[in-house]
Write a structure and sequence with these properties.
The protein is mainly beta. The protein is built from no helices and 44 strands.
């Protein structure tokens, strides 16, 4: 599974030699698998070239550098960079007064089989300085987030982050996350949430703060919208907001598994004869550690020589000969690695199989072809009674034997992340009038793999006549993305988009700006389909004593 995440950094144009006020945190512990990080900007210089860097806060250390060398507003991406392990606060640094930066992002490419940890950032802030409102007021040009529970799974923890400062350390500001009634009304009233992110904040320099640092918990409600609001303690001081975001940390672990200890293999040879046929099929029992649904079941195995048939895994209740409650899709021998290598083979289920905490279940692995003791499958077995809640089964002479007290199949039932809603933020602040906004992003199909994506366009605006579409600016002439036009106040979301071209750039294109269009973004509803993979993927993090292939 390959996904793309981004962390938007700025919500304004940067001009001049500066450490920009906007701050973000990159936490490498929130992403599992093979993770690659890039710094990306959209900018220009009137002449010559200038360096724009991704700088660690409070230092002169730059982890990524981009050289801007065109007077045409262009998108630039750095080479892959290696951030420090753990949490790092970053800002954008401009080396001179010559460049203009219109967008800045950290791009995270995550290749994770399976995906068990990821972090999604949803920008809901704006750069608005010198604010003196003495009553709780939304940002002048707010951005919104709509929470749809069906778009997320795994264990999700929600946080809110804001970069702000006040003009006087004696006169603080309070920053809120407001929830509506689902129709952009009753913000923070009538039982809707109004959470304090920062209470009487007194930071006089740009400061990034999270609600979780003050013990504020946030549980979104399905179908509700969220926005930032602020209030100043007194008009003798003022406050500034530079960016703000909802942060969704998703995690998943194994529901149940048998880690490798002492390892051997047993050949799965097939057949249905009642005499002289051993190892016709292999099984395993386990006792559920919680209630869950099985969408996929992993077994470590390899093919011996050249079998050409398929494997299927059945899940049963009651006994190894009990009631079949789930049958996997066929797994082709063509996708399996050959001895002496091994890998985790993923048996996928088209319909989830319901599992109840504390109940004992059974799986059976069978082959579709005729019996063959030469061209067969080698199932990895762990010996030594290392798994106390079940054991291996073998079918010989068309009869299933009793449960082994010493041997176990090397198996893994993942509680992985298969649903999330990532975003590409294009227009990150108030529009510059009608036409292309020159805050483009790149659609790269290689940034997604093993997933099915649904793309939508979301506009945040202040007037019912405001209208925006998405345009492919690499095409010559420009081509509008099909179904991308949205019109209306607050947040409007399109129907499903089509027409993306690999490696083409896309820009927001404002059609009508009667009020202000404050944001335009591509929403990506990500789903990992439960179908057999074209290749098997190693899972060494859960089987540390097995060599990966």
């Amino acid at each position: 599974m390959i996904i793309r995440q981004e962390i938007n950094i700025i919500d304004s144009n940067i001009t001049g030699a500066t450490d920009d006020a906007a701050r973000v945190q990159l936490d490498t512990t929130q992403y599992n698998g093979t993770v690659t990080y890039y710094f990306e900007i959209v900018g220009s210089v009137p002449s010559g070239s200038e360096n724009i860097t991704l700088r660690r806060e409070g230092t002169t250390t730059d982890d990524a550098t981009i050289t801007v060398n065109s007077s045409t507003v262009s998108r630039y991406r750095s080479a892959a960079f290696t951030p420090p392990s753990g949490k790092t606060t970053y800002m954008v640094h401009c080396a001179s007064t010559n460049a203009t930066v219109r967008a800045a992002r950290i791009i995270i490419s995550q290749n994770a089989p399976p995906l068990t940890a990821t972090e999604t950032h949803v920008e809901i802030g704006n750069t608005e300085t010198g604010k003196t409102n003495s009553s709780i007021t939304a940002l002048t040009n707010p951005k919104y987030w709509l929470y749809t529970a069906a778009n997320w799974n795994g264990t999700s923890v929600f946080d809110i982050e804001v970069t702000y400062n006040v003009s006087s350390s004696k006169q603080g500001c309070t920053i809120y996350l407001q929830e509506d009634n689902g129709s952009f009304a009753n913000w923070g009233t009538g039982g809707n949430q109004q959470l304090i992110i920062i209470n009487g904040g007194l930071a006089t320099t740009p400061t990034r703060d999270r609600a979780s640092a003050y013990g504020t918990t946030f549980t979104p409600v399905n179908g509700r919208h969220y926005r930032i609001a602020t209030v100043q303690a007194t008009t003798k001081s003022n406050h500034s907001i530079y960016n703000a975001r909802i942060i969704i940390n998703q995690s998943g672990t194994a529901f149940d598994s048998q880690n490798a200890q002492s390892i051997s293999t047993v050949g799965l040879s097939g057949g249905t004869g009642s005499s002289g046929e051993t190892n016709q099929a292999i099984g395993q029992s386990w006792t559920a550690s919680s209630s869950y649904f099985i969408n996929e079941f992993w077994v470590r195995l390899a093919k011996a020589n050249s079998p050409t048939d398929n494997l299927t895994l059945e899940i049963l209740s009651g006994s190894i000969n009990g009631t079949i409650i789930g049958t996997s899709n066929a797994l082709s021998a063509l996708t399996l690695v050959s001895l002496p290598n091994e890998s985790m083979a993923r048996f996928a289920f088209s319909s989830p199989v319901s599992i109840t905490n504390g109940t004992k279940y059974y799986c059976r692995i069978t082959r579709s072809g005729a019996r063959d003791t030469v061209n067969n499958y080698q199932i990895e077995i762990n010996t030594g009674s290392v798994y106390a809640n079940g054991g291996q089964y073998v079918r010989d002479n068309n009869v299933w034997g009793s449960e082994s007290g010493t041997n176990d199949v090397a198996f893994y039932i993942p509680n992985g992340i298969t649903l999330l809603e990532a975003q590409y933020l294009l227009l990150n602040t108030s529009d510059g009038g009608t036409g292309l906004q020159t805050r483009q992003t790149l659609y790269d199909a290689d940034e997604w793999g093993g997933v099915t994506n649904t793309y939508l366009h979301a506009q945040d605006a202040t007037n019912s006549a405001d209208s925006t579409k998405l345009t492919d600016i690499t095409a010559n002439p420009d081509v509008d993305i099909t179904n991308s036009t949205v019109t209306g106040a607050n947040q409007q979301i399109s129907s499903i988009l089509t027409g993306f071209v690999d490696n083409d750039e896309i820009d927001s294109n404002v059609i009508i700006s009667t009020g202000v269009v404050g944001a335009s973004r591509i929403l990506v509803k990500v789903a990992s389909p439960f179908i057999p993979q074209s290749v098997n993927q190693p899972l060494t993090s859960n089987f540390p004593n097995i060599v990966s292939v």
